Amino acid sequence: MAGAPYERGRGPAAGEQLQQQHVSCQVFPERVAQGNPQQGFFSSFFTSNQKCQLRLLKTLETNPYVKLLLDGMKHSGCAVNKDRHFSCEDCNGNVSGGFDASTSQIVLCQNNIHNQAHMNRVVTHELIHAFDHCRAHVDWFTNIRHLACSEVRAANLSGDCSLVNEIFRLHFGLKQHHQTCVRDRATLSILAVRNISKEVAKKAVDEVFESCFNDHEPFGRIPHNKTYARYAHRDFQNRDRYYSNI
C-alpha cells in the first residue's frame, strides 16, 4: 500500500525543496535509519536499489499520469528533481511508499515494489500528495480531514481504482463502484499511517468526500486509464500554452 506523508530527520538542500511543512513528530511508516541503502541480492545483474532506480526512471519518462503530475508541479512552482525528490529505500512492513513532508521527498520501498506496474501506481499516488503539499497548506499530521482529502484525491486520480485493478482484487459489479473503491482505498491508506479506528477514518473520508472527489487538479477529469491520462496531459499542455500567451 502506498503511504501518506511521514517525517525523516535530514533536511532538504537549499533552493531545491518543494513548498515545505515543518513537523516534529514521527508517524508510521517510519523510514529505516539512513546510511548506505541496503542492497540485497535482487537478480543476477541488479541489486534491489538499482532495479528500483531503473523502474523509477522508466515511470518518469513514459507514464502519462506521472508526466502530467510533473508538469503540474512545475506549473505550480514546485519543479521535481529525480535525484533530490525520490529515494529508493528498504521499508518496514508491507508499505510500498510514502511522501515525506518534512523533506518534500517521495520514498519508494525497493523491498516491496516488485514490478513496473506497481512502481507506476506508487509514484503516481505519492506525486498527488506532493502536488497537494505544493499548492495548499496541508496539515498532514494533526488535521485528519486534510489527510483524508489528499487520500481521496490519490485514490480517485491515480488509477488505483481502475476497472482492471478492481477486477484483480475481485471487486466489481457494484453500483457506483468507482466511488466505493475510492472511499475504501482512502480509508485503508489513512489506517496505514494513523493509529485510529476504522470508524474514525471512514468518518473523516465521508466528511470531505464530495468536495475532494470532485477536485480533479491537475488532470481536469478522472483519468480512468492511460488513454484518459494522455488526453488529460494534452489538454493541460494546451491550457498552459493558452494562459502563457495571454
TrEMBL record:
One of its GO terms (biological process) is mitochondrial protein processing. InterPro entries: Peptidase_M76_ATP23. One of its GO terms (cellular component) is mitochondrion. It is an enzyme of class 3 (hydrolase). Its EC number is 3.4.24.-. Signal peptide: none annotated. It holds the Pfam family Peptidase_M76. One of its GO terms (molecular function) is metal ion binding. Keywords: Hydrolase, Metal-binding, Metalloprotease, Protease. Belongs to the peptidase M76 family. This is Mitochondrial inner membrane protease ATP23.
